[in-house]
Amino acid sequence: MSTPAPVIVLVRAVTSTTVALGLATGTGPLLGPLAAEFAVGRGTVSTMFSATLFFVLGTGLIAGPAAARHGTRAPALLGAVLVPGGLVVAAVAGSFGPAAVGFALGVGGGAGCLFVPMLAAVGTAFERHRSAALVLATAGGGLGTVLAPPLVHALLAAHGLRATLLLLAAASAGLLLACAAGAGRRPGRAGTGPDGPGPVAVLQEPDFRLLCAASVGVCAAMFVPFVHLAADAAARGPGAAAGAALVAVVGAASVAGRLAAIPVVVRVGAWPVQRAAAAALTAALVLWLPAGGVIQLGVFAVVFGLAHGAFVGLSAAVAAERHGTVGLTARIAALHAAAAVGGLVGPSTAGWAVDLLGRPLAAPAVAVVFGVAGCAALAGVGRQRIPATVPEGTGHIAAPRRRRGTAMSCSSVRPGPARSRR
After folding, report:
1. Domain spanning 6-380 has what CATH number?
2. pLDDT tens, 129-157?
3. Nearest-angstrom CA–CA distance, 112 and 183
4. Do the Cβ atoms of 320 and 138 come closer than 8 Å?
5. Contact 327/197 with Cβ under 8 angstroms?
6. Secondary element (H or E) of residue 76
7. Where are the chain's structural domains?
């Protein structure tokens, strides 16, 4: 069986993640209608969105190893069924409980089944320019947040909540099934089988474990605007339509941030760029605190989106750069599991804080606290020297050696003796 061209693998990854992640992270305009339809509070609906983000990223712990062992097609097809299925359940549910469970498990779990396997497939398909390809592959998440909020807002205005969910289900089913049907059946080379460690094994490495802990804090802060910015704009004055547009601005800036990061990564490596992006993301959240008008919120959306794109777009590239491609699927899955915890904690905490305090600035304040904590943990990553050589049989791989014209991912890593190719 012939292997798809790398560019085809990349296009499928971008398309599927645009649809799936757009529905999981760009549906903030649904918050108000869902609360009104089922007579529940904003904090309750925020918890549903947090659970959705948790399943998006946490499902990677299962979908990643499954794709590594059995190929990308099986988990991708499952995701292509779950995403529209979750939307249908939410549309026909008579109470909030079944709607929330259906949406979180269907849309969240389905997106997770697609994201990690498709991303790992890109990482193994490209020999050259792997970091750039991985950054481009994550652009689907940014594109989804560009397209989903205004689309959802327009559909809600024209058709109402339940019809909107059904229309989104029909459209997503066609696109996702087309992408999944062409995915590879054979396992990738960056698997978690006999050629590499699994998620539990990579988390035993102190440096990588601290990186995952830092991701929890940064991602908890990062997901708050995606859930709360639209409702926050409505509460501060600009209105729900402006809030949806602001989330789309975040998505567009996120795509721009990923693209802008590529030439910088080529020069200095993915790791220092991602650390700078985490600091910029947290600083941007501080701008959200006093913002009241459209212009101030727009400035926040642009700055936050640029930093968000660079941080998210480089996660897989950092894992490959610092630890190699053996076990790449396991590392991506572990990082997404860490982000899942952040996605579960951040938006829900912000929602309950808003309900408790009754003030819009509670959401950005919660995000700033999480962001500062994540950056503090991130500052400690890389202080411990990553081993340059690997004991036989461990399945681990050292950080790549510096080649002429390239930069190391972390200044604290010294190149070890060259290893013979297998």
Report:
1. 1.20.1250.20
2. 776 777 777 777 778 877 888 889 889 98
3. 15
4. no
5. yes
6. helix 73-92
7. 6-380
